[in-house]
Structure formats: structure tokens, C-alpha cells
UniProtKB/TrEMBL annotation:
First-tier enzyme category under EC: transferase
Molecular-function annotations in GO: sulfotransferase activity
Keyword Nucleus: no
Species for this entry: Hymenochirus boettgeri
Protein name in UniProt: Sulfotransferase
Domain Sulfotransferase: 56-207
EC number: 2.8.2.-
Key words, A-Z: Transferase
UniProt-listed InterPro entries: P-loop_NTPase (IPR027417), Sulfotransferase_dom (IPR000863)
Entry similarity comment: Belongs to the sulfotransferase 1 family.
Length: 212
């Protein structure tokens, strides 16, 4: 397929460009939540507030390290088979990149595959109003925390933790990028019966793939 380069590779390129960013500037705060400064900005959050979703968008939502890359790739494969539509060259996470990205997304043919790590309350209102189909993925919080710990320490563009205990305290209190895993889980629990929302776990998807 064309444009098969995954967005994880694009993100690696962005982090590579951030090599000289001082550690105290590697994260920004927006509405009380931390985000990586090389991927998110106040400008993109402002532009995101007026982003127009489509009813036929496919929107994947997951806390970091819950299988985002894998799930997006599977969705892209499904759309390719059904619609013969190649994956977009744009990074699908809506909060990544610059404000100009949204103009390019307007030109994308449907169905668009979009994704986010954002808390339910921070998702653009148009996704909610249009009842865009949302696939929400969760992972065992213990595995999520461990994977996130290694992600922080293996990424030179995020603060390094000297011990698991220190990171665990920050993870439990939501003092990490994209905030609290548990706050996000509680928010989605309120929408578990919404017709346009499907909640699944990383473990369930993995089990199905092993059976297949």
C-alpha cells in the first residue's frame, strides 16, 4: 500500500528533531494536563477546538501505550480492503502536528481514520455531536504503566525517571503526559452503552489475533 509508513516512524522523526530541547521544556501543560512539547502545542489545541469531524470518520481513542499503533494499522487495513483507500500520509492522532494539518485533513476522502490519546472531555465537540463511530481501547493498567515507564526512559526527548517507584507515583497521580489513565477510564465508563461507542481491550484483540 502507498503511504504505509507508520505514524510511529513519523513521531520518531519529530523526536529526532528535538534533540537539543532542554529537559524542562520537553513537556507543556494545557488545561492542567501534561503533553510532549515536540508533538503538541497551544496553537494546535486552539485549532483543535473547532475541528470538524464527519459522521463517517472512524475515531480510535486510547490512552498512551494501550495499543494505538497496532489498532490504527488494523483499521487502515480494513478500510483498504473494504474501500480500496490507501492510508493517509498524515499522522492520525489529531493532537499531533501543526494547525495546518487540519486543512489537509479537510481534503482527505472518507472514511478518515483518526485517533487520539485525549480524555473524553477534551475531544472536539463535533465528534460527540455527530456521533462519530469511536473505537476505545484500554489495556491492563499494570502493563500500560510498565510500558509507559520504558517509553519515557527510552525516549531522550522526555524526562528520564531514575526509578520505577518515582514513575509509578506520577502515573498513579496523573502527572504524566495525557494525564490519568484512571480518569480516562472512568470518563468512558459513562458512555459504555452509547450506540456509536465500542470499548475493547488490548488483551481481547490480542487473543482474537492469536486464534486467527
Amino acid at each position: 500500500m502507498e503511504n504505509r509508513e507508520t505514524f510511529s516512524e513519523e513521531i520518531k522523526k519529530i523526536f529526532e528533531d528535538m534533540k537539543n530541547t532542554p529537559e524542562d521544556q520537553q513537556q507543556i501543560t494545557h488545561n492542567g494536563v501534561l503533553y510532549p512539547s515536540g508533538l503538541c502545542s497551544s496553537e494546535i489545541f486552539e485549532a483543535l477546538s473547532t475541528f470538524e469531524a464527519r459522521e463517517d470518520d472512524i475515531f480510535m481513542v486510547a490512552y498512551p501505550k494501550c495499543g494505538t499503533n497496532w489498532t490504527v494499522l488494523m483499521l487502515q487495513d480494513m478500510v483498504y480492503v473494504v474501500y480500496n483507500k490507501n492510508p493517509s500520509s498524515l499522522i492520525p492522532l489529531i493532537e499531533f502536528g501543526g494547525p495546518g494539518k487540519y486543512e489537509k485533513l479537510k481534503e482527505e476522502s472518507s472514511p478518515r481514520i483518526l485517533a487520539t490519546h485525549l480524555h473524553y472531555d477534551n475531544i472536539p465537540k463535533s465528534f460527540i455531536d455527530k456521533k462519530t463511530k469511536m473505537l476505545v481501547v484500554f489495556r491492563n493498567p499494570k502493563d500500560t504503566a510498565l510500558s509507559y515507564y520504558h517509553f519515557y526512559n527510552n525516549n531522550p526527548k522526555l524526562p528520564t525517571y531514575t526509578s520505577w517507584d518515582t514513575f509509578f507515583q506520577d502515573f498513579m497521580s496523573g502527572n504524566v503526559c495525557w494525564g490519568s489513565y484512571f480518569d480516562q477510564a472512568i470518563a468512558w465508563n459513562k458512555h459504555i452503552d452509547d450506540d456509536h461507542v465500542m470499548i475493547i481491550t488490548y488483551e481481547a484483540m490480542k487473543e482474537v489475533c492469536l486464534i486467527c
